[in-house]
Amino acid sequence: MAEVKGAPGVTLANVRAHAHLGRSSFPHMSVADSEVWRRFLTAPPVEFDRIDYDVALGGSGVVRLGGEHELKPMWHQLLKKRVDAVGLVGGQYWICEVKPVANMAALGQVLSYDWLASVERGWAGKTRRVVVCGEIDADLPGVYEVFNVAVYVV
Predict the structure, then answer these.
(1) What's the Rg (C-alpha) of the chain?
(2) Worst-scoring range by mean pLDDT, 16-25, 38-47, 126-135?
(3) What is the mean pLDDT of the chain?
(4) In this structure, are residues 133 and 101 in contact, taking their beta carbons and an 8 Å threshold?
(5) Is 72 exposed, middle or buried (0-12, 13-18, 19+ CB in 10 A)?
(6) Chain-centre distance of CA 106, in angstroms?
(7) Residue in 65, 36, 47, 38 with CA at minimum distance from that of residue 131
(8) pLDDT(7) > 60
(9) pTM for this model (two decimals)
(10) Which of 30, 124, 139, 153 stands 20 to 30 A from 103 (CA)?
(11) Which residues of 107-123 are buried (b: 16+ CB within 10 A; e: fewer)?
């Protein structure tokens, strides 16, 4: 396997594969997610005071390492869940999951992030659960409504 000169462990196949992935301009979002988010930002429903990306929550699985294991800090960061975007509007945190399709996975993610944020950051009662998407799964609008999750189709 030929490595790229000056980049140990990186092969030409890695470079070719990465070139086909495209680029995302938002941390932790795929190219498809980024396109949806860009459309949302062209005409957001509110004026955000601030938007934070790749917001880390959770990561409690690291307790399995126990004690003062040398890799514990690294695993603590790696095991965290990542919220695509958190927008602040006044004192309300918009927890935003971005997907091309608002599906069951997006619903579960935004509900989980909301619970983790209430426990870890004290945001209980201060959040708006949001899924930003290109379309919504035809079977799910009622489910999103029951769980009080706002869906913005852009």
Answers:
(1) 18
(2) 16-25
(3) 87
(4) yes
(5) middle
(6) 10
(7) 36
(8) no
(9) 0.80
(10) 124
(11) bebbbbbbebbeeeeeb
14 phi and psi, to 5 degrees? -60, -45
Measured CA to CA, the distance from residue 131 to residue 40 in angstroms comes to: 11
- Choose among 99, 60, 95, 98: nearest CA to 77: 60
Tokens of 124: 């209980």
Can you read off the two tokens belonging to residue 67? 């004690």
Q: Residue 54: left if φ>0, alpha if ψ -120 to 50, beta else—which one?
A: left
Q: What share of the chain is helix, strand, coil (3-state, %, to 5)?
A: 40, 30, 30
Domain 29-153 coded CATH 3.40.1350.10: yes
**Would you kindly state where each structural domain of the chain is located, as residue ranges?**
29-153
Query: pLDDT tier at 15 (50, 70, 90 boundaries)?
Result: low
Measured distance CA(117)–CA(87) in Å, rounded = 13
Residue 6 corresponds to which tokens in the numbers above? 């000056």
Q: Given CA atoms 36, 111, 114, 60 in this order, what sign does their dihedral have? A: negative
C-alpha span between 66 and 54 (Å, rounded): 27
